[in-house]
Each structure stands twice: as C-alpha cells, then as structure tokens.
Amino acid sequence: MEVQKNHVQGKDCVLWQILWFYGIATCVKLLLIPSYQSTDFEVHRHWLAVTHSLPLSQWYLDETSPWTLDYPPFFAFFEYVLSFFAHFIDPQITDIEAGLNYKSDTVIYFQRTSVIVSDLCLLYGVYRLTRNLEFRKRISIWILVLWSPGLLIVDHMHFQYNGFLLGLLMLSISYLQERRDLMGGFFFAVLLCFKHLFAVAAPVYFVYLLKHYCWKGLTRGFLRLLSIGTMVVAVFAAAYGPFLYNGQIQQVISRMFPFGRGLCHAYWAPNFWVFYITLDKGLALLLRKLGFNIQTPAASFTGGLVGDSSPFAIVPQVTPLLTFTMVLLVLFPALIKAWKNPQPTLVARWLSYAYTCGFMFGWHVHEKASLHFVILLAMVAVNSLEDARHFFLLSIVSCYSLFPLLYEVQEYPIKVLLLILHSLLMWCIFSVRFTKKTASNPNASAKKQGEQVQLQGVFDAIDGKGRFRIGWVEKFYLFGILVVELWGQLLHPYFLGDMYPFIPLLLISIYCALGIMYSWVWQLNWIVTSS
Amino acid sequence: MRWTVLSSDTLIFFPAVLYFFLAHYRTSPVPHKSNVAWHMVVILINPCLILIDHGHFQYNCISLGLTLGAVVAVLSHKDLIASVLFCLSLNHKQMSAYFAPAFFSHLLGKCLRRNNPVLEVLKLGLVVLGTFAIVWWPYIHSKDAIFEVLLRLAPFERGIYEDYVANFWCTTSILIKWKRLFTAQSLKFLSLVATVLACLPSMVQQIWAPSIKGFLYGLLNSSFSFFLFSFQVHEKSILLPLLPATLLATELRSPFKLLMHYALFSMLPLLCRDKLIVPYVALYGLFTLLYHAPGGGQYSKIHHLVIPIPLSIGMTFLYICSLVLHIIYLTVRPPEKYPFLFEAVIMLLCFIHFILFALYTNVRQWMLPRQSMSRDKEKKQN
C-alpha cells in the first residue's frame, strides 16, 4: 500500500523532502562556520597548496610541512580539483610557503563551504538508499544520518571530509542492494582509493561479491570474476598508475601507512586497547607497590618507534601485525555468514560490523572512526526494537566519545546541545516507530497517512503510550555518562585542580570503550544468530 | 557575556512562549497539533530576535518575554498580573511603551464592560503605581533623581531620527527636510500628535469591542504606529511589532512571511556593519525552511483568508525588489556623491511595505468585531 503511494507521490516528492532536511542541516552548518578548527584544517589547506603548486611527482615527497599527504591518490586528485577554486578565490591559500598556517576569512569560508558542498555526495548516497522505503522509515533514516551530531562535530567543526566518503560508501551499498554488484564493487574500489581506512571492510566485499556475483557456475562465474578483477585493477591503476610510473609506490605506501605512530592516538580512542593499556598500567602500579622493580617504559603509547623500545611494562607487546590478525579473526564469523547466505539486505550490517571490529582492535585508531559504523547502523536502526535500542545507546556513546575533540569553552554548549537534541529526536523517532499500532482507526484515510500520523505519534509517545523503552542497565550506563562528564567538568578541577589532567580523558575513554565493546558483542551476536 | 543573554533568553522568553501556547490554545478551538508545533517554532526561530540579541548583543528577550507574559495574562483574564508584568517590562526597556496604548485600550474596554468600571480602573491604577514604586524605589527620594533618570531614558537631543530607519520622518526627510523646517520642540510635538493619531483607530476599536484577537491586532497596530511615527526610533525597534505579528502568524500567513522578510531586510545595513551576513543568511534559510516544513500548519489554511490577486502580485513584486537590492547592496559600491544611496533605497522600500502592512492590519482589526460579537453571543447561548 505504502509502496504504491510512493509511486503516486513520485520521486520528485522524495527529492524535495530530502532536500528540506539537507537545507536545515546546511543552515546549521553555516552557523557553525566560525567555530573551532583543528590541525586538520591546516592539513587540508596544505594539501590544497601541495597539489596545486607542485607537480604530481612531488606530491608524496614534499616535506615543507609536517602535514604530509597520507591519503590515497584519489583524495589528492580531489584536493587538486578544489585547489583551482581556492586559487581563484585567494591565491595565497595555494601558495606553498606563504600559505602555511594561513587563517584568514577566505580560507575558513572556502574550506567550510567545500565540506558543505561535498556533503551533497552523502545526500545522494542516502537518497539512493532510502528512496523506495516507506515515508516514516526514510524520514527516520534521514534524521539519523543527515542530522547526525557526530558528523556535524567531526566534519563541520573539527574539519574533515567524512560525509563525502560515507556518501560513496552508501552509494556502493545502494547498488549492492539493487543487486548491481559490479557498480557496488566499483564504488567501493573508488572509495578505497580515497581513504584506505575503509579497507577494513574489504574482506566482506570480497566474500560477498565472490559468492553472490561470481559463484554462478564455472564459465559464467569465471567471466564475472574476471570482470570484477579487471574493474578493481582498472580503478587502482587510475589511482596509483602515475605513481607507479614515477617509481614512487614505495614512498606513497609508506606515507599512507605511518606505523611509527604508536598503538593509540594522543587521546585514546575507546577501543579494546584502552583496557589493555589500563591493565598494563594498573598491574605495573600494583606490582611496584608490592615491591617489584618494574621498568617504566621508555616509549609512550602515542608516538615513537614501536620496534625499538616497548611501551608496555608487563603485558605482551602489540605489533601492527598482531592487530591486523586480531581484526581478521573477529571478522571471521561475519565472513562465514556472508559466504553462506549473501543477502543484499544484510550488507549494511556486515559492513558496520567490519568497521566495528576495525575500530575495536585496529592500530592507531582515531575516535572519529566510530562514525563509520554508527552512520551505517543508522540505516538499519528502525528495523526492529532491538536495533533501535542498540542504536540509541551506541549513537549517544559515540557522540560523547567525540567530545574531547572540541575542548574549547565556546563549543561546550554547542556539543552538549547537539547531543541532547539528537537523543531527544532519536527517542521521538523510535517511540513513533514502535508505538502500539493504533487499532482504533483502522479506516485511516489516505490524507491521514504519513506526516500527520507521525507527528500525532510523537505526541502519543510523549504522553507515554510509546513502547520504546530501554532497560535498566542501559539507563544506568547513560546516567553514568552524565556522571563522567560532571566529574570532568566540575568535580575534577574542584577537588584535584591541575593534578592528573589526563584522568578525565582516561575516564571518558574507558567508559565509552565499555559501550562500544557492548555494541561489538551485540552486533556479533546478531550476525551469528541471524538465519 | 553571551551566556547572560542566552540564559536570560531561555529563562524568560522561552517560558513565556510556552505559557502563551498553554493559555491560547486552551481557549480557542484546538487546531491540529502539528499546527501548534509549527507556530511555536515560528515564534522561537524569529531570526530578527536571534540576530539582534545574540549577534548584535542586546537584552531584548527580557522585555519581550515580560511583555509576552503580560499578553498571556490578559488572554487568561488575569488583568492584574498582566499589569504587573507589563510595568516590569516597561521598566526594563522603555521601548515597551510601544505596546502601552493597546494594553490601555483593551483593559479599559474590558473594565467598562464590567459591573463596576470605576473600581476596576482604580484597581489597575493602583497596581501600576505600586509596581513603578517598587522598581523606582532607589530613585524616589528626590525629584532630581527621577528627572535625571527620565532625561537619560528619553534622549531628545539626539534628534527626530538617526541613521536610516524605515520610519515616516526618516523616509519623508528625503523630500521634506524636517530638521531644517521645524525646531526640536515642535518636532517632538508633531511626532507625538502623529503617533497618537496613528494608533487612535486601533485604540478606539478595542475600547468599543475588546476581544482577544483584537487585542493581539491592537498590539501590532500600536507598536507599528509608534515605530513609524515616533521620535528617535532605531532599526532594532522593528522587533517590537514583530512580536505580536509572530503571535498572529497562523492568522496572517503570507503577509507575515513578507513582514519577517522585510524586517530582516531593513536590518541589513546594521548586520553588514556587524559582519553578521552569514548568520543572517543561515537564520533566514532556517526560518523559511521551518515555515514551509512538510506537514506543518496545513490545516490553518481553513482559517486563512483568501488573498486577492492584486495583493499577491504586489507581494511578489516586493519580494523581487528586495532580492535585487540585497544583491546590489552586497556587491556594488555606492557612487561617491551619495555614499548612503543604497541604505536610503532599502529604507524607502521597507517603509512602503510597513505602511501597507500597517494599513492592512488596521483594516483587519476593524473587520474583527462582526466575528467576535457573534462568537460571544454563541457562548452566551451555550
């Protein structure tokens, strides 16, 4: 019934609706233009300068600034295209020497606008994924993705281009769901050449495409395998070809994978290694108190060469290879499921599980990487009550874990408000979705569908008729977030002053790691128990 | 400092708006809930208020919030509380006096209909005097102190107009040089007479037939007449007529949208000076998008009067003119001979619109009694 209505409404209606959501998000992003910029801002500005002023052969060799190009070539080409506009607006942006740490209005407006415009890619990806869904479901997904506070904080304040990249990923998933596997694979290959971090999900793609697309009898399957293989090779050739030709592949790879950076980022991303490090430090402290002579490690976790001296005092060492094997190991169940039953509708779940594994056990993971799987999970969040509960918790935890990125005072009310508004919106959406079906008006006329019922449902939910409830453990955990925040903001400066400044951050890391660990286990359980 | 404005906004203005919704929609027929949500959003997302209070930095939200509280008290028939709140608002910012004729006429009209009019008027008078006494307590000890405060409140030496505001005096000064023709004293008298004449029709209507809708229209009309004809009006004073206009948003739909557009437009030179262009665009975008929210306010079309074709043509023409001027003002440099040419043109256009809008709302206020009288009769029969 609803599908017919959608056809009657027409694709144009859906387009206008999604543009309305994008418009509101854009207005908010415009208002956030003067906010805090991180070093990533200067990084991207420098890349504009490098790609514009230097020839291709110098892109991965340049040392003018510590912010060297560490993304794959397609991203460099993207910056190259942008740099023409930048040069047109203000030549100093793309000047390699004079542009260093250039912070004038033109740069700020240009860069921020480029992110806002590149979010059109996200818009298109989400549109393609949701255009055939029923009204309430697609509006829910639009709200969860287009108005995601995590994306706003990371992309439009901290400054990155995640929206654009996630849009490519969603395009790829939308093609897979339409059973156009070749196109899906194509877009994923393109995405890999934009940011290699997305390669964590490559095994899932490999297994899925192999079974779903190529496992169709000997000749046909082999031809298909050949076609996919050629396509991937072609994409990679387009990206890395020029550098292969210049003999710079070694340099490019070393720039893209800077393993010397250490197991954790300066602020520990809330993953498994947080527990590992805390265990190490805790044990060291305990054993020292007990009188053992424990060497304090020379190297720190956040930098230095891991090969030479170990940062761990007691527990076994962790090498990049170990993290790689661990990720593959935990990914295995999903790969088996993907092989046994490659359903297009489950692709989003496998991919988000893959990114969760990468986040939990990867090497030098940024907390921003949690965006990858949270946004993907938004696609399936409204499918069932369990999904909704899980997403509610995960979204709040991941958004909260991004708080330390914005440490200036003026951003504090903004980030808190964003989180609170997002939680309220999520609560409303899920309550509407899962209210007891109004059996009282089975003769709902055509007019009453869609908008009015949704908004009426909101007020019903607020009145308490909603069925969306979270359990006591979750409530306790969410309350704990409030406690952690209060400690960090008020109690710690009051009681301890300037001593141990790392404790609030440590608390946030550990607490969020608990939440994300729960999400990982939940997702694994879902995948393993799904038929 | 920004925190103080933000907190005062949240603590005073927001509760006032909530109170308005609780009171207003309890009395009049309840429209669809999405209508209510739409109306609330339109009041709160008022771009002018946000830009002036949080961008330019002022504390209008306190006096506007108190005035709104007073309006709500009147709607709930709690006249004494209304008087107290309005006096507080008046003592916070004397610009709230723009609303004074409406309050006066409506309350007087209601008193006259009660059994014992003189007693009612006395009660109100005592409450007003009492509030003033409490607020002015530190200054009551001597006449000089009171006069000093009053002098500061009313800086008559600044002249009848300053800068380029879409005021009658300022606009007509292009042709008639008021400052040269008349002395300051006579200008004061002239503006007083003009203002009183302008808000007289609205006052008379309210005294003759007080009603809730009429009261809201009265607020709009009296504040507009003050804005257009008063002494030393500032561009930011457009916020005052905007408040009752937002309260009447469900009644006035398209003209209200045009009013908001022109109110923002009239503040464009001020915002340009404060480098608030991007927030201006963003907030206007937000307002327009939320105004046209899918599913919001659809049912109000039943109450909405059909706009005659010449009016809609006129409105489209005004939109296009203002858009063109936006672009010209932001991009083109004015000629050397007339450095304020564009400000003057903006002011002229805004003034034309405001005069037309004020005439329109006055006419609508006078058209009300026939509806409200019949509704009162129905209530009495029930």
Short summary:
Chain A is mainly alpha-helical and 531 residues long. Chain A has helices spanning 2-31, 39-53, 73-89, 105-130, 135-146, 149-159, 162-177, 181-192, 202-214, 218-245, 249-256, 272-289, 320-340, 347-361, 370-378, 385-401, 412-433, 451-465, 472-495, 502-529. Helices cover 67% and strands 0% of the residues of chain A.
Report on the structure:
Chain B: It is a multi-pass membrane protein. Chain B: Keywords: Endoplasmic reticulum, Glycosyltransferase, Membrane, Transferase, Transmembrane, Transmembrane helix. Chain B: Pfam families: Alg6_Alg8. Chain B: Pathway: Protein modification; protein glycosylation. The complex is a heterodimer of chains A (531) and B (382). Chain A is mainly α and 531 residues long. Among the domains of chain A are: 1-256, no CATH class; 272-317, no CATH class. Chain A is 67% helix and 0% strand. Chain A is built from 20 helices and no strands. The two termini of chain A are 28 Å apart. In chain B, helix 6 (100-113) runs antiparallel to helix 7 (117-135). Chain B is built from 19 helices and no strands. Chain B has one domain (1-367). By secondary structure, chain B is an all-alpha fold. The N and C termini of chain B lie far apart (54 Å). The model of chain B is unreliable at 299-304 and 377-382 (pLDDT under 50). The chains are: A mainly alpha (531), B mainly alpha (382). Chain A binds chain B through residues 17, 20, 23-24, 26-28, 30-31, 33, 109, 413, 450-452, 454-456, 459, and chain B through 6, 32-34, 37, 278-279, 281-283, 285-286, 289-290, 292-295.
